Amino acid sequence: MTAESVEHRVEWPVPPQDGYTVDDLFTLPDLPPHTELIDGSLVFVSPQRRFHANVIDLLVTGLRSSLPAELRVSREMTVVLDKRNGPEPDVSVVRADAITGPGQTSYQAEDVLLAVEVISPDSESRDRTTKPHKYAASGIPNFWRVEEDGGTGRPIVHVYELDPMTKAYVHMGMHRDRIEVDKPYAIDIDLTAVDRL
Of 23, 73, 103, 162, which one is least surrounded by beta carbons within 10 A? Predict the structure, then answer.
Protein backbone atom coordinates (compact mmCIF):
# COMPACT_ATOMS: atom_id res chain seq x y z
CA MET A 1 0.00 0.00 0.00
CA THR A 2 1.48 3.33 -1.04
CA ALA A 3 1.19 6.57 0.82
CA GLU A 4 -1.14 7.81 -1.91
CA SER A 5 -3.69 5.02 -1.59
CA VAL A 6 -6.25 5.49 1.11
CA GLU A 7 -8.19 2.64 2.57
CA HIS A 8 -11.88 3.41 2.98
CA ARG A 9 -13.21 2.21 6.31
CA VAL A 10 -16.67 2.48 7.69
CA GLU A 11 -16.96 2.93 11.43
CA TRP A 12 -19.96 0.85 12.46
CA PRO A 13 -21.48 1.52 15.87
CA VAL A 14 -20.73 -1.25 18.34
CA PRO A 15 -23.87 -2.21 20.24
CA PRO A 16 -23.93 -2.22 24.03
CA GLN A 17 -24.02 -5.64 25.66
CA ASP A 18 -27.80 -5.51 26.19
CA GLY A 19 -28.53 -3.89 22.82
CA TYR A 20 -29.63 -0.40 21.92
CA THR A 21 -32.61 1.43 23.38
CA VAL A 22 -34.99 3.93 21.84
CA ASP A 23 -33.02 6.70 23.56
CA ASP A 24 -29.92 5.55 21.65
CA LEU A 25 -31.85 5.59 18.39
CA PHE A 26 -32.50 9.30 18.83
CA THR A 27 -29.06 10.28 20.15
CA LEU A 28 -26.48 8.25 18.21
CA PRO A 29 -24.74 10.57 15.76
CA ASP A 30 -24.65 10.04 11.99
CA LEU A 31 -27.18 7.22 11.71
CA PRO A 32 -28.49 6.78 8.17
CA PRO A 33 -31.99 8.11 7.47
CA HIS A 34 -34.86 5.78 8.38
CA THR A 35 -32.83 3.65 10.81
CA GLU A 36 -35.15 1.45 12.87
CA LEU A 37 -34.71 -0.27 16.22
CA ILE A 38 -35.96 -3.85 16.37
CA ASP A 39 -35.31 -5.91 19.51
CA GLY A 40 -32.43 -3.66 20.51
CA SER A 41 -30.69 -3.89 17.12
CA LEU A 42 -30.29 -1.06 14.64
CA VAL A 43 -31.76 -1.85 11.22
CA PHE A 44 -30.53 0.15 8.23
CA VAL A 45 -32.76 0.27 5.17
CA SER A 46 -31.81 0.07 1.51
CA PRO A 47 -32.43 2.92 -0.92
CA GLN A 48 -36.13 3.26 -1.68
CA ARG A 49 -37.53 1.90 -4.95
CA ARG A 50 -39.94 3.90 -7.11
CA PHE A 51 -42.88 1.56 -6.34
CA HIS A 52 -42.32 2.02 -2.62
CA ALA A 53 -42.15 5.83 -2.82
CA ASN A 54 -45.16 6.12 -5.15
CA VAL A 55 -47.35 3.87 -3.00
CA ILE A 56 -46.49 5.88 0.10
CA ASP A 57 -47.42 9.09 -1.75
CA LEU A 58 -50.69 7.54 -2.98
CA LEU A 59 -51.68 6.30 0.48
CA VAL A 60 -50.75 9.52 2.30
CA THR A 61 -52.81 11.57 -0.17
CA GLY A 62 -55.72 9.11 -0.07
CA LEU A 63 -55.75 8.85 3.71
CA ARG A 64 -55.69 12.62 4.10
CA SER A 65 -58.58 13.14 1.68
CA SER A 66 -61.20 11.98 4.20
CA LEU A 67 -59.27 12.44 7.44
CA PRO A 68 -61.32 13.42 10.52
CA ALA A 69 -60.15 16.59 12.31
CA GLU A 70 -58.92 14.63 15.35
CA LEU A 71 -56.45 12.54 13.30
CA ARG A 72 -53.26 13.14 11.29
CA VAL A 73 -51.32 11.15 8.68
CA SER A 74 -47.52 10.91 8.82
CA ARG A 75 -45.00 9.15 6.67
CA GLU A 76 -41.84 7.43 7.86
CA MET A 77 -41.90 8.41 11.54
CA THR A 78 -40.59 6.24 14.36
CA VAL A 79 -43.22 4.66 16.59
CA VAL A 80 -41.97 3.87 20.09
CA LEU A 81 -43.38 0.47 21.02
CA ASP A 82 -41.21 -0.11 24.07
CA LYS A 83 -37.67 0.54 25.32
CA ARG A 84 -36.06 -1.75 22.70
CA ASN A 85 -38.36 -1.28 19.68
CA GLY A 86 -38.77 1.81 17.54
CA PRO A 87 -39.84 0.73 14.05
CA GLU A 88 -40.69 3.25 11.37
CA PRO A 89 -43.93 2.45 9.53
CA ASP A 90 -44.09 3.79 6.00
CA VAL A 91 -47.38 5.53 6.84
CA SER A 92 -49.12 6.09 10.18
CA VAL A 93 -52.47 7.52 11.19
CA VAL A 94 -52.13 9.14 14.61
CA ARG A 95 -54.22 11.15 17.03
CA ALA A 96 -53.86 14.89 16.37
CA ASP A 97 -53.19 15.56 20.05
CA ALA A 98 -50.04 13.39 19.75
CA ILE A 99 -48.47 16.03 17.50
CA THR A 100 -46.03 18.15 19.52
CA GLY A 101 -44.48 20.31 16.80
CA PRO A 102 -42.23 20.39 13.73
CA GLY A 103 -39.21 19.00 15.60
CA GLN A 104 -41.03 15.84 16.67
CA THR A 105 -39.22 12.60 15.78
CA SER A 106 -41.56 9.88 17.06
CA TYR A 107 -44.99 8.85 18.23
CA GLN A 108 -46.00 6.55 21.08
CA ALA A 109 -47.75 3.30 20.11
CA GLU A 110 -50.94 4.27 21.98
CA ASP A 111 -51.34 7.31 19.67
CA VAL A 112 -51.22 5.25 16.45
CA LEU A 113 -54.49 3.98 14.96
CA LEU A 114 -53.06 2.57 11.71
CA ALA A 115 -49.56 1.43 10.75
CA VAL A 116 -48.80 0.73 7.08
CA GLU A 117 -45.81 -1.19 5.75
CA VAL A 118 -45.00 -1.25 2.02
CA ILE A 119 -42.99 -4.40 1.35
CA SER A 120 -39.48 -4.02 -0.06
CA PRO A 121 -37.15 -6.92 -0.90
CA ASP A 122 -34.81 -6.08 1.99
CA SER A 123 -37.62 -5.72 4.55
CA GLU A 124 -39.98 -8.50 3.47
CA SER A 125 -39.58 -10.71 6.55
CA ARG A 126 -39.68 -7.79 9.01
CA ASP A 127 -42.74 -6.25 7.32
CA ARG A 128 -44.67 -9.52 7.10
CA THR A 129 -43.94 -11.05 10.50
CA THR A 130 -41.78 -9.14 12.97
CA LYS A 131 -43.30 -5.67 12.77
CA PRO A 132 -46.99 -6.70 12.59
CA HIS A 133 -46.49 -8.94 15.62
CA LYS A 134 -44.93 -6.05 17.55
CA TYR A 135 -47.56 -3.53 16.40
CA ALA A 136 -50.33 -5.90 17.54
CA ALA A 137 -48.67 -6.59 20.90
CA SER A 138 -48.43 -2.82 21.41
CA GLY A 139 -52.17 -2.40 20.78
CA ILE A 140 -52.12 -0.60 17.40
CA PRO A 141 -55.67 -1.37 16.24
CA ASN A 142 -55.15 -1.44 12.46
CA PHE A 143 -52.35 -2.63 10.19
CA TRP A 144 -52.01 -2.63 6.40
CA ARG A 145 -49.40 -4.65 4.51
CA VAL A 146 -48.90 -3.46 0.93
CA GLU A 147 -47.30 -5.64 -1.73
CA GLU A 148 -46.61 -5.14 -5.41
CA ASP A 149 -48.74 -7.13 -7.85
CA GLY A 150 -46.12 -8.72 -10.10
CA GLY A 151 -48.45 -8.66 -13.10
CA THR A 152 -49.65 -5.05 -12.96
CA GLY A 153 -47.09 -3.29 -10.78
CA ARG A 154 -49.97 -1.95 -8.69
CA PRO A 155 -50.37 -2.20 -4.92
CA ILE A 156 -52.27 -4.97 -3.21
CA VAL A 157 -53.35 -3.92 0.28
CA HIS A 158 -53.89 -6.54 2.99
CA VAL A 159 -56.02 -5.11 5.80
CA TYR A 160 -55.73 -6.36 9.38
CA GLU A 161 -57.61 -5.48 12.57
CA LEU A 162 -56.48 -6.18 16.09
CA ASP A 163 -58.30 -8.89 18.02
CA PRO A 164 -58.25 -7.44 21.56
CA MET A 165 -58.56 -10.90 23.15
CA THR A 166 -55.53 -12.44 21.46
CA LYS A 167 -53.55 -9.22 20.82
CA ALA A 168 -53.03 -10.53 17.28
CA TYR A 169 -54.13 -9.21 13.90
CA VAL A 170 -56.98 -10.79 11.97
CA HIS A 171 -56.89 -10.56 8.16
CA MET A 172 -59.98 -8.60 7.11
CA GLY A 173 -59.47 -8.52 3.36
CA MET A 174 -57.26 -7.96 0.35
CA HIS A 175 -57.79 -4.94 -1.91
CA ARG A 176 -56.44 -4.65 -5.47
CA ASP A 177 -57.93 -1.74 -7.45
CA ARG A 178 -59.60 0.17 -4.64
CA ILE A 179 -59.46 0.09 -0.88
CA GLU A 180 -62.72 0.98 0.81
CA VAL A 181 -62.83 0.40 4.58
CA ASP A 182 -64.42 2.00 7.63
CA LYS A 183 -61.57 1.58 10.14
CA PRO A 184 -59.89 3.53 11.57
CA TYR A 185 -62.29 5.90 9.71
CA ALA A 186 -64.11 5.91 6.34
CA ILE A 187 -61.39 5.48 3.70
CA ASP A 188 -61.77 5.13 -0.06
CA ILE A 189 -58.59 5.13 -2.19
CA ASP A 190 -58.28 4.35 -5.90
CA LEU A 191 -55.20 2.13 -5.97
CA THR A 192 -55.00 2.25 -9.78
CA ALA A 193 -54.05 5.94 -9.44
CA VAL A 194 -50.50 4.74 -8.78
CA ASP A 195 -50.24 4.41 -12.59
CA ARG A 196 -50.32 8.22 -12.85
CA LEU A 197 -47.54 8.87 -10.34
Answer: 103
